[in-house]
Known about the structure:
alpha+beta, six-stranded antiparallel beta sheet, 30% strand
Amino acid sequence: MSLTEKPAITPERLAFYEKIDKEAFTPLWEVMSSIITPEPKSDCQPHLWRFANAKAHLLEAGGLISAKEAERRVLILENPGLRGTSKITTSLYAGLQLVMPGEVAPAHRHSQTALRFVLDGSGAHTAVNGERTEMRYGDFVITPPNAWHDHGNETREPMIWLDGLDIPLVSFFDASFAEGFDAEAQPVTRETGDSLARYGANMLPVDFETKSAASPIFNYPYERSRAALEKMKEQADWDPCHGLKMRYVNPLDGGYAMPTMATFLQLLPKAFQTAAYRATDATVFTVVEGTGRSTIGDKTYEWGPKDIFVAPSWHWITHEADEETVIFSYSDRVAQEKLGLFRQDRGNN
Length: 349
């Protein structure tokens, strides 16, 4: 008997199953092949969302409901294989959030960790635990778990960013808590840029002790990250599966910036085609610069700036860049690594 085979059904066995079912018992041998699979298996499907279409829908929504009324005016990127679950992968959530000029998305906090990746507009702000940061294109912004946060837009243009949260993971553990603040926006008690200066300059306060599993830096400016990629590409040290791929880190320990979601930024030179790669972490990608295509399993998706696509767990993926390309991505790799579950296959490269 193998893990993929089920025992034969006999009248005696069927009668036994029906009898024990009344007492909430289930025979393992009848379900083992579906709950312990030889390889990762889920209903998650590859898919691509065009940013131009998403922006049009968001702006229409902006005329239908206010940020205050909606709490967060977001269109969820729901995986076609997981409809009705508010998931982009089995373990992760993604949405596109719009804040119109003059609006404030009210302050609240929750158990879930959140990331923001700015895709359209410049100059709006996010406040996290009393410090504001200005948001510009390509910036990666963290909201740690249980941190007070609100968003505001004092510019003349709409602001749109990608929201990534670990909502399905927190729900799996039945560990969700949330509460609203007693004012629309929290008080600003720290100077803008304080966190980056205090923790992001290869120094730490002398007696600093961490109180959070997330990075104390909550804005990783794209300008700095892009400049680092530009310098490193001079070495021409290209990984066959990833080009030049870097992970955002927590400066306290060199680990991932968030406890449940791993975030990455990669550069592909013009005409570069990656070798086939697969891993157990289903991954959400958004194109920051460039055009090209990705093949996920047997499907190929053409993409350009700001488009978003998803690769399910254990699906072969390759990228091909028509011009120099930068891609941001996030997955649950950090959680899988902590649990000893992460596995990757580099196609024998």
